């Protein structure tokens, strides 16, 4: 009589999150204006003759300095020209805008790293006005339009004199994800979340099983017959092996590395299996074969053969393809070099002395 069964060795691989945690702060800037419709008599620089005021000959600045008619003065954001209205009135008229010290003609625009500034004049008022936002690859977005920066979505929002890059979502794995929403990408799941004052960030929340179940970072979970650890890293998450999952006495259990269990008997033959490996690889490896019949319980290691009763040989042999097979076979005795052997599928097992 003969029974046989085989247990395959299983090996899997490490998984790393390819999308890392990232964040982006909100950008804020202001527009600047200068009104010049009002004639400013208090700014008149007078000509005095014999200590008597006569006619206007220039303008007086806030600092107390004097400008002659036709001369200019640079404020942080505008170039002002001293103009004569009449003999008793003057006007500091803005003729250009200034951006980082560079002069801008009226109607022109300058693109910075984050915003578009335009020098605009309307109804006695000139302004260094933010007219748009700058996204990736210098793509321009008008006020109210959306744009991307790195892997994030923003809208170009105007609030009074200020313009803000307001975060509205993330781009994760090529897909748009709104603020506070989550998404599964491969074996990991992510969340698009607020960051600071108006910023946004991508958080790797954890791992995803083969059935789509979400696992929080730091937890262990079962998947595909193995025990995994969803391990937190500095900027992300990686999936590593934590052990094996197998049935013992009809109950599905978890086994750490180095722990073993007994398989369900096939006929009267069974195996003891150990969970071997590390975070990178794991193997469910047969280490013993067990026979339990009329001659009692017999346990042997892989590669061993023993006599079971008077007419049977119990063998625990690892085959070429890696399977371990336990068998009880009738003894066929052969003599080789004065030793007695039994042959089991080409393997010679020495018989103990009679």
TrEMBL record:
Residues 96-160, 169-234 form the Abnormal cell migration protein 18-like fibronectin type I domain. Pfam families: Fn1_2 (PF23003). InterPro entries: Mig-18-like (IPR040282), Mig18_Fn1 (IPR055119). Residues 1-21 form the signal peptide. Keywords: Signal. The keyword Signal applies. This is Abnormal cell migration protein 18-like fibronectin type I domain-containing protein.
